[in-house]
TrEMBL record, chain A:
SMART domains associated with the record: AAA
Organism (species): Shimia abyssi
Gene Ontology, cellular component aspect: plasma membrane
CDD domains for the chain: ABC_Mj1267_LivG_branched (cd03219)
GO molecular function, one term: ATP binding
InterPro entries (alphabetical): AAA+_ATPase, ABC_AA/LPS_Transport, ABC_transporter-like_ATP-bd, BCA_ABC_TP_C, P-loop_NTPase
ABC transporter domain location: 4-234
Stored SUPFAM superfamilies: P-loop containing nucleoside triphosphate hydrolases (SSF52540)
Keyword Nucleotide-binding: yes
Alphabetical UniProt keywords: ATP-binding, Nucleotide-binding, Transport
Name this protein carries in UniProt: Amino acid/amide ABC transporter ATP-binding protein 1 (HAAT family)
From TrEMBL, chain B:
Predominant location: membrane
Domain of life of the organism encoding this protein: Bacteria
Bilayer topology annotation: Multi-pass membrane protein
UniProt xrefs under Pfam families: BPD_transp_2
Entry keyword annotation includes Membrane: yes
Places the protein is found: Cell membrane
The protein's name in its UniProt record: Amino acid/amide ABC transporter membrane protein 2 (HAAT family)
One GO CC term on file: plasma membrane
Keyword set, alphabetical order: Cell membrane, Membrane, Transmembrane, Transmembrane helix
PANTHER family assigned to the protein according to its UniProt record, in alphabetical order: ABC TRANSPORTER ATP-BINDING PROTEIN, HIGH-AFFINITY BRANCHED-CHAIN AMINO ACID TRANSPORT SYSTEM PERMEASE
Source species: Shimia abyssi
Alphabetized GO MF terms: branched-chain amino acid transmembrane transporter activity
Residue spans crossing the bilayer: 36-55, 86-105, 112-131, 161-179, 200-224, 244-269, 281-302
Length: 235, 314
């Protein structure tokens, strides 16, 4: 059974169709990459999955349950987590408190500190717990975002362009982190960096003009002529 | 020494200083400080919503007046004893805040400011409309005999000072505790980044509503206490001026700091008091000072202190 699936999912913004009739199935335990040219509707698509954007038509199912009309915070409560494309941390709170806010939806009391330490340790920010999040470098803020996602221990982690703006060394750390994470959670990754996608993803979905252009393993996608024309060829 | 011990020490220290001041201040300043402490409690209530949750209400006079009239009317009309009347004031303030929150929180940003402003104006007009009971602009006096609580005459300056200190102390310590609880941290998170808080799974609307009610209850507490301690209930306390005051006090003292509201209220009170001793154009002096402060200390006194010296200030 799919952990998450959509049927006929569409989003119209006053005449513009951002996402058009998408059927999508994500099995449990997979690392799925969602790729496509700018404006293909990737962020709109995942925003409808986690409830940030209201869908125009179609259905979103999570663990067999129709969540199409649930408000975002309830979907998160069911085990979805979303990290933002644009770095989005609580600037005037400490790094530890940022992660604690994520952790407290799941655990209480003394467990919180333990989860925080663990999550920050995994992304390598354990020595910066007391700093204000706003004082972190951009790359570290992205890692903090991921630590917040980890602290939620979600069933499905949606990462919206997590490597954007990271240095090469940070990207290789990131890849190791995601591989480690994939043992315990399903991951949906929007990503522009093709090296990251080809290395990490078990399966790739290509969106173009709001529709699914192709789906397949990294090898399939690399060989797909339509994808090359729409996207890869332009890189 | 841990951060929470340090900050508890600092806040208790302030309360201790205020306690000692009662014995040394000349009568005039003694009365002023009592007034400032009650008004600062009002600012503390405002600060929970504005400074910590990031919601700018321009209608807090509604809550202050709800507490004041809730208390005053039951004393005046039904002869309720002061403590019960105070509780009625809190209850009325809480209910008004709940109703306003349910309606106004459907809006955001500028619309929220306008909606709160309009509701407060409606509240003000309601006070005038029911002039038969409220005595409208003129207001009404709460007699000395009605201000004796548990055998303590609150019209006596010393008793009044200590009562104001208790009111202020309660408001201050409640806020200090609040901002260290998980609930308080969620409010700050909403201020910092509402969308992110929602995407961590928090029900942002419910948290904001709780903040409005809490802020309203503390403001009503201050309003009811003010009426009780100073013996007067009047429509001017429901006017737009009293919605703007707490905003000014909090901005001057430092929004989103526990001590800021007190510092801002103290400063503004004495700024007007002292400058009106020098010239009749005292608002000019006040105005220029405010502009200078906004330019050079945009985060308010305590906000700047936190930025530059004491990073741990709550």
């Amino acid at each position: 059974m799919s952990l998450l699936s959509t049927r006929g999912l569409s989003k119209h913004f006053a005449g513009l169709t951002a996402v058009n009739d998408v059927d999508f199935d994500l099995p449990e335990g997979q690392i799925r990459a969602l790729i496509g040219p700018n404006g293909a509707g990737k962020t709109t698509f995942v925003s409808m999955l986690c409830g940030r954007v209201e869908l125009s038509s179609g259905v979103v199912m999570f663990e067999g349950r129709d969540i199409s009309v649930l408000p975002a915070h309830k979907r998160i409560g069911l085990g979805l987590a979303y990290t933002f494309q644009i770095t989005s941390v609580f600037g005037n709170l400490s790094v530890a408190e940022n992660v604690a806010l994520a952790a407290r939806r799941r655990v209480k009391g003394a467990m919180v500190a333990q989860v925080v330490t663990e999550a920050l340790g995994k992304v390598g920010l354990a020595d910066r717990m007391e700093q204000n999040a706003a004082d972190l470098s951009y790359g570290h803020q992205r890692l903090l975002e991921i630590a917040m996602g980890l602290a939620q221990a979600p069933k499905l982690l949606i990462l919206d362009e997590p490597t954007q703006g990271l240095a090469d060394s940070e990207i290789s750390d990131f890849k190791a982190l995601i591989r480690d994470l994939a043992n315990s959670t399903t991951i949906l990754l929007i990503e522009h960096n093709m090296n990251v996608v080809m290395e990490l993803a078990d399966f790739i979905t290509v969106l173009d003009f709001g529709q699914v252009l192709a789906e397949g393993t990294p090898q399939d996608i690399r060989a797909n002529a339509a994808v090359q024309a729409a996207y890869l060829g332009t890189v | 020494m841990s951060i929470s011990t340090k900050s508890l020490g600092l806040h208790l220290g302030l309360l201790a200083v205020l306690f000692v001041l009662q014995f040394v201040l000349p009568a005039y300043h003694h009365g002023n400080i009592a007034r400032i402490m009650v008004l600062a409690s009002y600012a503390i209530g405002f600060n929970i919503l504005f400074g910590y949750t990031g919601l700018l209400s321009l209608g807090h006079a509604l809550f202050f007046a709800a507490g004041m009239y809730g208390m005053g009317l039951v004393v005046n009309q039904f002869g309720l004893p002061p403590f019960s009347a105070l509780l009625v004031g809190l209850l009325v303030g809480g209910l008004v805040a709940l109703a306003l929150g349910l309606l106004a929180l459907r809006t955001e940003g500028v619309a929220f400011m306008i909606v709160t402003l309009m509701f407060a104006q409606a509240g003000y007009l309601t006070v005038l409309y029911f002039g038969e009971y409220t005595r409208g602009d003129e207001g009404f006096v709460i007699q000395q005999a009605e201000r004796v609580m548990w055998g303590i005459d609150l019209s006596d300056p010393t008793n009044r000072y200590f009562a104001a200190l208790v009111i202020f102390g309660v408001s201050l310590l409640v806020t200090l505790k609040l901002v260290q609880t998980p609930f308080g941290k969620v409010l700050i998170a909403i201020r910092e980044n509402e969308e992110r808080a929602r995407m961590l799974g928090y029900d942002v609307f419910l948290h904001k509503l709780a903040a409005v009610v809490l802020s309203g209850v503390i403001s009503a507490f201050a309003g009811a206490s003010y009426g009780l301690l100073f013996g007067y209930v009047g429509a001017s306390f429901a006017s737009v001026q009293y919605s703007i005051f707490p905003l000014l006090w909090v901005l001057l003292g430092g929004a989103g700091t526990v001590l800021g509201p007190f510092v801002g209220t103290l400063f503004m009170f004495y700024l007007i008091d002292l400058s009106s001793g020098i010239t009749s154009a005292y608002m000019l002096i006040a105005g220029v000072t405010l502009v200078a402060l906004t330019l050079f200390a945009p985060q308010g006194f305590v906000g700047e202190l936190r930025k530059r010296v004491w990073r741990w200030l709550p």
